[in-house]
Amino acid sequence: MLIYKYLSKYILDKISLTEWVDIALELIGTGTENENLYILAGLDSKSDIDGIRKYLDFILDEMKISSPSEEDAAAYLLYWYCSDLVNRRMEPEEFLRTVYDELFNYIAGTYTDKDYTPAQEFILFYWQLDDLENELVHLSPTAGREDEKKKLFKRCAELALMYVNENENTEQIFLRNGKEKK
């Protein structure tokens, strides 16, 4: 669900509270029906911070959506982007840049080199791509940069597919089951 993506980005400080006015318009445009969403879309994002917070809380409450932990938000964003890559809504290069831009700071501040997450693997793929593009990798005379990029993108797509298949129920982190997540 699109609102889960934006809530995850908000939890990870990738979007501000004021951006929820435009997000409300986008959600309405995709068919999400909610009276408070219409009210939120009509607020002034520059001067009504308290109103934005209030109506965002109303919307989440009405939709029975819990705010996930930072770890769950990062996992959901990775799932969202992997799904976009697997379903060809995003090109591999754009995928790697997006994962890097959206998740690197969280991952670098949370996990050590002894931990392993697929997100870390995608960050490494991003750095490999950057090295290839900036010719920081010396290749044998028979290896071409474009061929190496294709191999990298193939490994990236395989890992993304595996991640999507292993995390099909990831949206459950947003659903309230009688207990509110804080």
UniProtKB/TrEMBL annotation:
Name used for this protein in its record: Uncharacterized protein
Instruction: Say which species the protein is native to.
Output: Breznakiella homolactica
